[in-house]
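Worked example (supplementary).
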Amino acid sequence: MPNKHSRTTHENLPLNALIDGLNRRYCHVIDDGEFERWPGFFVKDGTYRITTRWNHSNGMQAGLMFCENRGMMEDRVSALRIANVYEPHTYRHLVDPPLVINQSDGEASVQTSFVVYRIMETGSPEVFCTGKYLDKLVEMDKDFLFKERLVVCDSERIDTMIIIPL
Amino acid sequence: MPNKHSRTTHENLPLNALIDGLNRRYCHVIDDGEFERWPGFFVKDGTYRITTRWNHSNGMQAGLMFCENRGMMEDRVSALRIANVYEPHTYRHLVDPPLVINQSDGEASVQTSFVVYRIMETGSPEVFCTGKYLDKLVEMDKDFLFKERLVVCDSERIDTMIIIPL
Amino acid sequence: MPNKHSRTTHENLPLNALIDGLNRRYCHVIDDGEFERWPGFFVKDGTYRITTRWNHSNGMQAGLMFCENRGMMEDRVSALRIANVYEPHTYRHLVDPPLVINQSDGEASVQTSFVVYRIMETGSPEVFCTGKYLDKLVEMDKDFLFKERLVVCDSERIDTMIIIPL
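After joint prediction of all chains, the assembly is encoded as:
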């Protein structure tokens, strides 16, 4: 094998693998219903937004959900546990390996396709949402955390009931 | 790149890659209809179970399918080929990269999200099942095999016709 | 960790990772609507075919789409942009990591499962197509390109409107 393969192994691949691992943990935490652990995937002033393809490509800021720091995410989780009234359901995320768009020292911009299935208590799994994550990640201690996670949903017609984070 | 990246490469990543490779082969064997090769992914006394999220989280052992060794899996495949009467169909698995939960010398516990589409002879693909694999793997010769594969389906409402393994 | 793990890292894994990276870029280009970049994933005389499982397993050459070189792909993209009249829609590909079937110096045969969701302007995402890519890849400069991409759709019942490449 040529040298570039070794180079890929030592430089690019571990980054991909680390980011992929972050996505795996993120999804299993949500799909297993451990919502209290969700804000911990973000840096303290990290942002989480859900928008649609059309809104995003037209530069519209307003979206379906916006948390501008970890505290707001914790509030959402509390609301989800305590205040909200909704029909019980779970998600199943299927998330592609990430495509790294940019990387510099300790930071990375990544694009990742996903599909989320929603499972109501008495029903079959349904395609709830497809789209892509546009993420900015920062290296913290021995891992990556989200500085920005922008969820761009492909469809303009999103169920208004986004209770559980995507 | 810091040292930990190299460490990730040499220790964690190959394990992930080996397990991912096992999942790829497992799925293509089933989706290509080569069912006779399916038991070969397990050690001789390996177990294969299908259950639902509710049953699993409530500690119910009874499930939708239970094979407690490779021989029982071979029997299932024979039945599928010879005895069962069912409308012809195929599967398409889409399976995420694995999340390694635990690893010790030559063993690993892994959690992996999946979706299975079912394609009837005259129809379009339908979402048949979503869920997660909870696997215990052992290293044998130059690869990993399943010691336990527990298929936890997200929905309680599973089509009774699980002929082909998930 | 035993030596074979290091070996896997240096020989097999980077190949998988390079091919996976190609698939990621391929899918995001299409899903982001940058169709003009699609032919660039192929060598000049590369082929792109879409067929069905039944046609493929019965050795039928005729398929749903056939481009026998990059020029024909460019023509398709022009037609898509200029001539065709169709209801606006986008795709979302979810594509598994690849399974390398064969590799020799600078070439690889690969099998990869996929699902494509179609999103019409006013609707929710629908499962449009599931299947597998059967690819032959060649190493060019510092990356891989498709020499052959054969898209084998699981269902015989494909929407006639395949405007955007799968």
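Two points are worth noting when inspecting this output. The helical segments of chain A are 3-31, 53-57, 70-82. Chain A touches chain C through 28 residues (CB under 8 Å).
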